[in-house]
Amino acid sequence: MTAPGEPPRWMRRYQAARVSLPAWGRYAPTRCSYTTNASGVWQLMSWDLDSDAHTRLTDKPTGVAGGRPVPDGSAVVWFDDRAGDEVGRYVTTPFHGGPAQPLVPELADAWSAGLALRPNRLVVGTADAAGFSLHARDEHGLRRLYHHTQPAGVGGLSEDTSLLAMAHTEHGDVLHPTLRVLDALTGEAVAELWDGPGHTTAPAGWSPVAGDGRLAVLTDLTGKIRPEVWNPMTGDRQPLDLHLPGEVWVADWWPDASALLLGHNHLGRTALLRYSLSTHELVPLDLADGTIRGARLRDDGALWYAYNSSAKPSQVRVREPGPDGSYPAETDRALLVPPGEPAPDGVAYRSLHYDNGAGQAVHSFLATPEGFGPWPLVVDVHGGPHAQTTDSFDPEVQAWVDHGYAVLMPNYRGSTGYGKSWEDAVEGDPGGPELVDVLAGRERMIADRVADPDRTLVFGGSWGGYLVLLALGTQPDAWSAGVAVVPVADYISAYADEAPALREFDRSLFGGTPEEVPDLFRERSPITHVRRVRAPVLIITGANDTRCPQRQVDNYVAELERHGVPHHYHVFDAGHGSLDVSEQISHQALALDFLAEHLGTAPAQR
């Protein structure tokens, strides 16, 4: 219940303080850092476990997304961009606070392509108009280890710092990167792990034991993401003996390198497991149902993890090992509790499948108000496209439900977590399979009397925002309204203005540049279909966005005006999304009020 004078539940879910999973100094485990929105904007904090002192390190108006202590714990490193545009440089702030200093002053501002930190060597990845580079700094000075016009990124330094794992796309397929190991002193290639065209091999963490040159990797030869252990010096590959229905990722190594901590993602929920590399025994860690956002093992074996579910806000917890090496539930406790009142609980999602009309079942989550439908329906289309909706706490979804909407969250073709063929289905056909699956979800909700057929709206951000605008123009009879946040709206203009890595991603996704496949770019660009849009549309975008730049959205809005389509356009002062809680609340209220005006639904509670 909401007490007189306090904000409504939906606002309090945004306002409640949250914290990220802490990181610690590799050789200073009591020196930790994390991010929190407790100040109203996500900022970076240090945490001294010895004194339990928490120090705010940043005060950026557009916020800071993350950071980590340097190996000796003397400072915390983070990426300092320009007003959220993702162009900047890595800087360090003293652990107990103070002015930030460039980590590598000689490097110009650029997009980040990763960072690896060891006591006597670091590697920074950068991206700019000239291409993608990896730079090493150590006792031998600063040097460029690698450069290419195709995207590449840092994958981590081995424990002895002699080897650097990296992901590259020299073969021209950004959607399926390849793993290479370099000599971290000279930049010479030591080994390559490539499973052929259309397959992915990616680094997932070096063994933490000195002298052990094994690297955990992720591959997709089985048709699903699966870990292996690879020794680049000998070429030995050890696939893991896994009989699991979903996809598996590597969260961490056990401190003695005897086992891997694995995350198993199945139908939008994540479990943690211990896999012994000697006995091949797979032991689940008995945690609550939901989604594990991250997990790390301390040198003493303690498991730190971030957990949430659709109904319960995020928690950062610790579980201690027992004498037999197990992780009994009674040792589980809260690790880092945010200040202030916790967020009100939310409505639990229901997991379901529906037929997309192409002989395939689309997994989805559904959240509904109490009582019986039909309700106004929000089809919430996730970004990516290579991402997925999970059973996770989301103030945005809960705000829709609080205002009387049912929310369908489909993991359309292109989503991760459902196998390689599902994820790859959008290659050469962007915006095609996704919208077939989204529309089928709408029809299923109407047939089940969940949705009011006269009040169905499509909502999404980033790639989801792109799909919103494309749906409004190519499925005009289906949708009563649309809300697109930081979308691609004019694909040819977006391609010209976007960050280098995004440009190469689009080239791989479309199978060429706008000059090479002009018809496909034109057909799959929302601005091509704007004259068919009839439903009112709200568009929200960032003034400093380098992924979905503002100019191409301006072009689309101008066409809406020219064709007399009811719309509202809001530009906020940040990049590809906002880390400012008040801005996030403003966007949600704007959407609720816009829909109330055009659909007669409930306006934002205040």
What does this 3D model show about the protein?
With 606 residues, the protein is α+β, with helices and mostly antiparallel strands. It contains 10 helices and 36 strands. Strands 5, 6, 7, 8, 9, 10, 11 and 12 form an 8-stranded antiparallel β-sheet that branches. Strands 29-30-32-31-33-34-35-36 form an 8-stranded mixed β-sheet, sandwiched between helices. A hairpin with a 5-residue loop joins strand 25 and strand 26 (303-308). Helix 6 runs antiparallel to helix 9. The longest helix is centred in the C-terminal third of the chain and has 19 residues, at 581-599. The radius of gyration is 24 Å and the shape is globular.
Strands, helices and their partners?
Layout: H1 9-15, E1 23-25, E2 28-36, E3 43-48, E4 53-56, E5 68-69, E6 75-81, E7 87-94, E8 101-102, E9 110-118, E10 121-128, E11 131-138, E12 141-148, E13 152-157, E14 163-168, E15 178-183, E16 189-193, E17 201-206, E18 215-219, E19 226-230, E20 237-239, E21 247-253, E22 259-266, E23 269-276, E24 282-285, E25 291-297, E26 303-308, E27 315-319, E28 333-336, E29 350-355, E30 361-367, E31 375-381, H2 395-402, E32 406-410, H3 420-424, H4 433-447, E33 451-461, H5 463-474, E34 481-485, H6 491-497, H7 500-510, H8 518-523, E35 537-542, H9 550-562, E36 567-572, H10 581-599
Parallel strand pairs: 31-32, 31-33, 33-34, 34-35, 35-36
Antiparallel strand pairs: 1-2, 2-3, 3-4, 5-6, 6-7, 7-8, 7-9, 9-10, 10-11, 11-12, 13-14, 14-15, 15-16, 17-18, 18-19, 19-20, 21-22, 22-23, 23-24, 25-26, 26-27, 27-28, 29-30, 30-32
